[in-house]
Structure to design on (568 residues):
């Protein structure tokens, strides 16, 4: 029963009780006044009731409106959640880097005989002998004539002999650009890619690293598969890395990764590049700096006494053989590499790592995509084993800054199969670190350095030293050095640098930065053939202009360099 109904009934009851009663005139007047008063109160009650009913209707309308708004808000929230799942920021990460670099290159070449000229001359002499145009020669006479040059019958051959001379490139400019992409495809599965362009200013090739048909190291005699984008050449944006990773397999700390591997720029080389540590995907810089295609399987157990411990098995293909003809064969098989990486301990203060690699069926020469060497793989020359121990650490608050340090030691063992490089139809005699008779060799190298960081001024000061023995051979042709990969040097290399970061607020990510870098490298070569697995090394001081060499043997080399770099 509504309030208005109750009021009306009460009023009727009062009137019904009052009207039958006999009353005098004054009593009737009094009753009339009371009735009028009650009537006024009734009207007031009616008005109040009407207002309450109107408010009630408004309240119900507002409640309904609020309910509809809440429903719309819920629908919008669901739409926003669905949109966020599809938004780029949740599944795609984009970053990269740009670098302008200036290099001033100076060097001194020891006396030698140019091997390319020797083999070319020898090939012509053999052809002339077979045609009966010149008298027969034994092998010693043949190669002596090929080195000396001169006129033989109708043949006029250039001399291969070179006395010691100096070389330089006073100003070499390069531009390097890298684009990084990481896409989360599903839960625990992602795809990572890196694209690289590394161009010499004013050129669309790598001739600035050579002198005509002369190269100063085998790893800089041209660009080949694993060095694309890492050795300067042209302006193409090339795929440096592209691999898929599946993490947390079976809910365990196990991962599987396949594709073009992150096997360049390994630790501790990241210090001088001013980059974050590569993590479990990286490789030790002293053993590997080459863009492999392959696969890895890793495990990172949670062991309280061994924080950061992990184990990883790697497999990569360095050369792919063509389809084989059963009648003629190809004369060469695939070149593969396997590796086992063990990180025993890793915190922000200390890291200890062991790596073992084995290269199987090493090819005699890579497919040179550029450069003066018309080389093609034609045979397999044996296997190589490598091991390394790598340590990195940091001491905080050493004076006004922090001290980062590292120490690596590497070992190599060759297992030649007796095959040798064939060139211009002739047997060069160059096998896997032997010339002539097959011989297994052992080599070693050390890599030491430190970087002192001054956070207050955003200044980083570094010094590095590495030494390689007579028979040291590593696989680092994609290293960021212009003369030759310094960690493959048979001799000593000293490098110092200073990095000055700009005091600007990062925008694209917390690792974004811009900086200048000034550095100096000095190479002192003890033996020939740094970064080459072909032929036995020869002591630099014993060379003369009758000693055939595939590349011009450097006695020493210098590189003054400066960069402006942006990481985003």
């Amino acid at each position: 029963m509504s309030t208005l109904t109750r009021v009306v009934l009460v009023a009727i009851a009062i009137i019904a009780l009052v009207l039958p009663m006999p009353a005098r005139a004054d009593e009737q007047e009094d009753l009339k006044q009371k009735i009028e008063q009650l009537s006024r109160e009734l009207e007031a009650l009616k008005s109040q009731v009407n207002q309450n009913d109107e408010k009630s209707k408004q309240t119900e309308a507002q409640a309904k409106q609020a309910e509809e708004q809440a429903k719309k808000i819920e629908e919008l929230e669901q739409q926003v959640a669905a949109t966020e799942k599809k938004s780029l920021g949740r599944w795609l990460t984009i970053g990269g880097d740009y670098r302008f670099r200036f290099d001033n290159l100076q060097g001194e070449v020891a006396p030698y005989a140019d091997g390319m000229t020797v083999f070319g001359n020898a090939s012509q002499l053999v052809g002339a002998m077979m045609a009966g145009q010149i008298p027969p020669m034994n092998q010693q006479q043949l190669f002596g004539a090929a080195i000396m040059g001169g006129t033989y019958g109708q043949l006029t051959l250039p001399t291969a002999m070179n006395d010691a001379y100096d070389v330089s490139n006073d100003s070499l400019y390069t531009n390097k650009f890298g684009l990084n992409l990481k896409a989360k495809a599903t839960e625990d599965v992602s795809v990572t890619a890196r694209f690289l362009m590394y161009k010499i200013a004013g050129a669309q090739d790598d001739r600035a690293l050579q002198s005509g048909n002369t190269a100063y190291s085998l790893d800089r005699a041209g660009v080949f598969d694993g060095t694309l984008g890492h050795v300067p050449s042209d302006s193409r944006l090339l795929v440096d890395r592209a691999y898929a990773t599946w993490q947390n397999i079976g809910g365990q700390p196990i991962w599987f990764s396949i594709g073009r591997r992150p096997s360049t720029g390994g630790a501790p080389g990241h210090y001088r590049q001013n980059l974050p540590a590569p993590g479990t995907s990286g490789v030790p810089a002293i053993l590997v700096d080459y863009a492999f295609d392959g696969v890895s399987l890793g495990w990172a157990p949670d062991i309280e006494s061994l924080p950061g411990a992990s184990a990883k098995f790697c497999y990569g293909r360095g050369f792919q053989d063509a389809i084989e003809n059963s009648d003629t064969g190809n004369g060469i098989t695939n070149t593969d590499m396997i590796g086992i990486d063990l990180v025993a301990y890793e915190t922000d203060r200390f890291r200890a790592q062991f790596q073992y690699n084995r290269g199987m069926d090493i090819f005699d020469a890579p497919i040179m995509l550029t450069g003066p060497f018309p080389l093609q793989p034609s045979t397999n020359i044996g296997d190589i084993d490598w091991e390394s121990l790598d340590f990195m650490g940091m001491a905080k608050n050493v004076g006004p800054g922090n001290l980062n340090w590292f120490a690596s030691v590497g070992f190599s063992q060759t297992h030649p199969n007796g095959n040798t490089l064939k060139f211009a139809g002739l047997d060069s005699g160059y096998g896997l670190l032997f010339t002539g008779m097959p011989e297994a060799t052992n080599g070693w190298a050390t890599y030491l350095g430190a970087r002192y960081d001054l956070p207050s001024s955003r200044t980083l000061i570094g010094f590095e030293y590495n030494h390689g023995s007579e028979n040291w051979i590593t696989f680092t042709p994609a290293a960021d050095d212009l003369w030759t990969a310094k960690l493959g040097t048979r001799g000593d290399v000293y490098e110092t640098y200073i990095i000055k970061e700009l005091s600007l607020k990062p925008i694209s990510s917390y690792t974004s930065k811009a900086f200048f870098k000034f550095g100096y490298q000095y190479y002192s070569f003890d033996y020939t053939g740094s970064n080459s697995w072909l032929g036995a090394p020869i002591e630099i001081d014993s060379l003369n202009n009758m000693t055939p060499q595939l590349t011009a043997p450097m006695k020493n080399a210098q590189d003054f360099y400066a960069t402006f770099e942006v990481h985003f």
In short: The helical segments are 3-18, 25-86, 88-91, 115-130, 139-148, 270-273. Confidence is low (pLDDT under 50) at residues 7-25. Residues 25-86 form the longest helix (62 residues).
